Amino acid sequence: MRDLDDTDVEILRLLIEDGRRPYREIADEVGLSAPAVSDRVTRLRDQGVIRRFTVALDREQLREGTPVLVTLRVDPTNLESVRQTLRDHEAVEHVFVTVESRLIVQANAPSNVREWLLSVVDPEDLGAVEVDLLSDAEWTPTVGATEFALTCDECGNRVTSEGVTARFDGEVKQFCCPSCEARYRETYEELAGDV
After folding, report:
1. What CA–CA distance (Å, rounded) separates 148 from 4?
2. Distance between CA atoms of 116 and 105, rounded to whole angstroms?
3. What angle do CA 70, 104, 115 make, to 5 degrees?
4. Per residue in 144-188, pLDDT tens?
5. Rounded CA separation 177/162 (Å)
6. Rounded to an integer, what distance in angstroms lies between the CA atom of residue 101 and that of residue 107?
7. Would the pTM of this model clear 0.85, i.e. be above it?
8. Which of 154, 144, 150, 145 is nearest to 3 (CA)?
9. How far apart are CA 120 and CA 142, in angstroms?
10. Which domains are assigned to the chain?
11. Largest alpha-carbon pair distance within the chain?
């Protein structure tokens, strides 16, 4: 594992503009060969920097519901299950979680938003609900002035070239050193054994 360099950041920027851009075209832009770009993209995926490639749809063009922003107050003990339920629903585009245990959901809901919401989420899990109609929504990810610093999933320190990457139930975890990975693995296996 190594730190991300300017070439990695440029590859990410180009992929954000068009995730289907051919590696040959990216290679021409960054001064590498197409196989070298492919290797870097694979490494960025393995490190968890790139989580997935996706398509951004304009659902209004598809006439799939009313674009809304829904803010939900949720009991912190139910937050994860409500978030998961909403995230997995086909009408939901984005789910955001605030430190105050609020869920903010961008969705393309049927015309009766409250009825739709209550059919998706158990009413007992909900507190206050606010619904705002959206006139426009735009997703503009960027890597512009961002400084990439992977952090250790065990201790929170910065992951450098001595760091290691491991998968736990398919989820990529980053560690600053082998000892942090070992501690994390030990705790993970203990908790998995309790289930």
Report:
1. 7
2. 13
3. 30
4. 555 566 788 888 888 877 788 888 887 778 888 899 999 999 988
5. 6
6. 19
7. no
8. 150
9. 32
10. 1-56 (1.10.10.10), 59-133 (3.30.70.920), 149-195 (2.30.170)
11. 56
